[in-house]
């Protein structure tokens, strides 16, 4: 059961407070009882508050950046949509009645904020489309719980996890914050980040937990100074905890975001990790927080530097072709997307929020030798060490 | 090893005639020796000629329609590109030097024709982009052979085939003609067809063979008259052989082109079949030929009827959203695409030729109730019987 909310509507806010999310929170406690002690207080109103409370400032700053993209202040000229909301197990978005959205300056700028909750979890999605700076940008905070499908268990087994199911069932609880921002200007790169916590209860009652996540950058054109800034900021965040983390997670990122059939990476990487269950839950959580804190200083200076760069239709076209590769990676290889599509009752609009507004596939497109298009391809084919 | 060809260039033609394709043809004979007797003569110059010879007239008529889309006669004003060609096991298209293409009237109309051959097979791709009628249209004739990857064998096992491999290896030979045509006008539907022959040699020397294929239509807006015409033409082709075929293959088509995570089909269907190894090789081949002959009468009248229909930017936008769903199906579910991506040395540009030139993903897009957009969605969610 889902409820529409709006930033300032008293009715919407009351609806949200009394929605299925609260039921979701209490239902989830059985599985996700082992969160780090410091986070326990945040569970009181909504279990989903956990990540909003601990990582929320990041998510809110990204939301602020999204607002900045619209050229307006918080609560100012943002076109808050009269959106309906939809739960994980509801019908596809198009079928729900009573949904619409207002337009701001014709086709420019539509922001959606949706609270969605159901028996299997809930969360908040905030998406902007056709902004002045961002073509499409979304933040998604969610908690899901239930039983993993056989397909999802299989995917985890293929990662080397030995999981003891009972009659093929495996109760799980997962929560995370994720975001993808596709800017309009081809000189502003796309950023993606996702930080998540996962818990599984095996047949014998053993609880397994781990963190996963990462932040990575996908430029249309290579700017070496920006690449160094991005990686250096992430390295500094990692180094606070252990100097071995950045090199390991940088390589993992290059390996993970590999579009095998193209022989190229999706972007210039960043950091990526999964199955992080050491040295302790509290320390792993602190590391994840450091990564989350690095997102804004990683990215916002690059956005500010380039968002007014002039560009040609040919440069926009190359951006659209790269967006096509982004779609290829996400739909063919991305584990998060595949897990989402394989999880019954998952919310498709949130899972596919990461796809760009528009993309392009040209047959045998081939940039001229020594062009700037060829230069970024080189780096995508042969990842570089940006900081030492 | 690949060779560039052009329609009339003597040098290109000589190159093609003396290219790796001939080697491919002789190498393939060992595995694909069991083709229908009537086709044997066609193998002499090029094994790949088999389907060009038997189904080639269809492919050539589609190519003619593609030319018509450019508003020019055969060999007339078509902008034949100075394309390079690329083999299945070569590097991605962008890396090959010396490739370019000329533009006709700015961005309008670029046609590519590529002969590609390598140790693992070869074929011909003919692609048009930015035509007056067709936004992107391609025909692909190919023969591939070699050893199936473990992943590909796994996919066939999951279809119920029990295959005896030797040290995990399974020699195979596959040949087929496929085409996807994405028109510009949202009132002209996308068509896809693919007809193929597959042969496998098991560890004990047993040879398995089967045909597969189908033709299906993906309209942006529903036109019931066109839907009936399309299905009726396919039914008549099937009924020549057995009245049970159309209902069976129509349902198979609806089931196959199902975008599970959206709860909707890719289009309004048509026919689809696989593993067709009865009643005899010759009869199965005759049935496939009837299907192939039905393609032009199925589709061309619909193109002619609507290609000059006026349309609004909003209607074009809805087409782009539907193209996004097309991409989702092809990358997430389509067995042909998954088989191609899982086959080492396959030619990515030919496999992904089916993707539209442009596509769009809007967050929570929802057409108004009772709109024409909602009407096509109804049919995609609940397939109809168009002929009885």
Mind explaining what this structure looks like?
Two copies of one chain form a homodimer. With 388 residues, chain A is of the alpha+beta class. Chain A has a single domain (10-381), classed as Coproporphyrinogen III oxidase, aerobic (oxygen-dependent coproporphyrinogen oxidase, 3-Layer(aba) Sandwich), CATH 3.40.1500. Helix content of chain A is 36%, strand content 22%. The first copy, chain A, contains 13 helices and ten strands. Chain A has helices at 10-17, 20-29, 49-54, 56-69, 150-157, 224-239, 245-256, 281-293, 295-306, 313-332, 335-342, 348-351, 372-381; strands at 110-118, 121-129, 134-147, 171-183, 190-201, 207-218, 258-259, 264-265, 269-276, 358-360. In chain A, strands 1-2-3-4-5-6-9 form a seven-stranded antiparallel sheet. In chain A, helix 6 runs antiparallel to helix 9 (295-306). The longest helix of chain A has 20 residues, at 313-332. The radius of gyration of chain A is 21 Å and the shape is globular. The N and C termini of chain A lie far apart (51 Å). Mean pLDDT of chain A is 76; it is low at 1-31, 37-56 and 58-107. Chains A and B meet through strand 2, helix 10, helix 12, strand 10 and helix 13 of A and strand 2, helix 10, helix 12, strand 10 and helix 13 of B. Strand 10 of chain A pairs antiparallel with strand 10 of chain B.
